[in-house]
Amino acid sequence: MEHSFGFQGTHQPFWLFVCAVALIGAGFLIVTLFRYERRLVPHRTGMILLTLRIGVLLLLLFAFLQPVMSWTIERRQRGRIVIGVDISESMKTQDEHASLAEKLRWARALGMIGNRDLDASLDRWIEAAERGEEPEWVTAEEEPDPEKRLQRARSRQENIEELSESLNELSRMELASKLLRKTARPLIDELSEVAEVELQLFAGEAEDITPELLEAALENPPQSVQPQASNVSSALRHAASDLESSQLLGIVLLTDGRDNSQDDPLNQSIRLGLTGIPVYPVLIGSERRPKDLSVASLDFPQTAFKDDKVVLKAAINTSGYENQKIDIELRSAGNEPVLRSFTADGTTSIAEFDLDATQLGRREYSLFIPEQPGETRGDNNEKSFAMTVVDDTVNVFLLEGEARWEFRFIDNAFSRDERVEVDKVVFDQPYLDILEETFFPRELKLPADADDLADSPFAESDLVILGDVPPGELGPAAIHLLDRFVADAGGTLVLVAGKNYMPLAFENPELEALLPVTQLRPVNVNDRFARGAPHERGFHLALTPEGQGEAFLQFSPDPVENNLIWNRMPGFTWGLLGEAKRGSSVLAYAAGGDNIPSLIDQRQSAAIVHQYYGFGQVLWIGVDSTWRWRYRAGDKYHHRFWGQLGRWAARNKSSAGNQFVRFGPTQIDIGQGDDATISARWTQPYLREFPNLKAKAELYRLDSNDRRELFTSIDLVANPRRPLFHEGRAVSLPAGRYRVKLVVEGADERSSGLEAPLYVQERTTLELSDLSANRDLLAQMANLSNGRMYYPDQVQDLIKHLRDPLEQRTMREEVELWDHWLLMLAFFGLLTTEWVLRKLNGLP
Fold this sequence. Notes:
With 844 residues, the chain is an alpha+beta fold. The chain has 21 helices and 35 strands.
């Protein structure tokens, strides 16, 4: 610490001159007063008064010169390194199938082989093994004699085989643990010499841990991190959550790179790279796919209509069993197992089963593969799932200005669906007076009373699709009925963009309120991107995280595969894009270029947007040619999209309710450990009648005999963004069957006592569907964040790439003494003493 003292007033010559003149004048007056008082008071008293007055004068001089005291503080602060250890289920895998090169790397990393004399030979053996060649265990330079060279080579090979056998018993998690704590140069100790080390565990979630508790946590992973899932992004987010403390030098991840979340770790790596935080993944595990059978994914509808043809498509990983016969069983309670056999023709095969949709209610199933000889793991051979069969149909009403292509294909998709009843009105049609009526109805029959929803054409509809209708055909009365259909009847309205009218030609406040977007702008692609192949033409739609979770936007149960399908979809040369309203959810946006747009950009380029509106919901689709999705796919994606959209629109039927409230969980089926959101949607008149009502949801857990026991009770709180909604959240529910009951206080009994079902399934995950280590993902993460990926035997090189983290900060602080309170206290203290002394001696 360095101190300094100075006077700011000395830098102003004019101010110094003024101060000098004033002080000389004041000194002359003080001396004159002293000569006068010398005749009135004793000499000693006069001298004291003179001293006090000179002291006041000196303090004034001190203040006029503006003294400042300053000092400089230098602080040295160490940076931080976060080490994340993957403890997901895949990290329990023992890589007996690993290549020779991989096992040599692991042996060297653990200090089981290698020294200064042998390192060069070890590098040569690894390079040869990676090329698929037999390593030259002993060179002619090491042993000129051929016979002795052969003996030494056999001896070395036997030693390597013994090491390989011992490594076969080591799981990936144990390998990571030994790298951290149990080698000659433990990674934690090495990094601790460079920077402050923070440890975290991650799987589905991430949390901090101390080094003392690491060993126990690896042996018995805490359930709070959800070890049955893998989410590398959670580790990156958690590591970078505290950037206000010391500098974060990097994130070291010990992981096999398996990621089955809906997050994108590459996006997170880019953000870290932009903030100067590199990621250093250490690849744990073999890149080879082991000999293993597993249920990779299940494609089936959670809710099906009675007598629907429901097909379960199961993706089965058959790595190591190519060209072999595989048996698989579909089991359900009270029924004989359904057997299927197929010959594995690759690493993944598809098995199909017909699911029974003739009986109403909920059916629970499990798909089981008998364990085969030589299989790496047997705990990934079974998956459970459930399906609910309801006796219902979807009533769809299509409103269109003219029979444009989009209308024709939507109508065709619904008309071919046996569980959909379609009504339609096309206002503008060619009519030659040959038939009595046009092919489609062309008149929307409205009731005399604009508020008579029961007699409106939408009374029986679950879904209304409003296309490019001109304002002259859809007047204020029809729009008012649509508003009531959504807000009061709980219907679903889909607004499809139109080039001519919808919605830019309308000036109606109710339609503007229904629209979940504002500031709509046409987008026309007229450049070279409009002339390419369909999959390259125009702009493409990309799903947001909210969109990835919506059932009607799923073309594959695998989130990664679903995103790939959307990326391969044909583009659009025209659309109406807008900014999503506050409270609405953007499900898809117009993607442009390779850059990842921010959340703000996604909301300003919204193409598919959802918002709740009263009891119902509104969906905006900002393109008029979803029929383009039929390119080289036929009806596969186009019909699936609209069919799923119709069933999604009818899901409100499953909620409990009456004329005052609709109540129930937002999702009837959830996974174990997930949160259940319970909502009650009231009518506006009912809330006005009982403005102070309080609601709660009681969750009863059912046993095998349907006996109920109160599990928990949660308060339903008013949602300020959705005034008619009261919502609550039940956190981390265990697997089981539940009944949710609405209890209301401060209102009459008309809305209380409603019940709705809730089912919590044991979590199914893709965690164990592929047990190979994902080197490509880790390498991309490292490159995008300006880091580097390491093999276990290269972790010592990591220390060399980290810069000196000691951070020196110089801080300068200063105090202005001329207006300090101590100076003021001394000044007034001297004046007060002088005044008291004068008065005591009888002076004026």
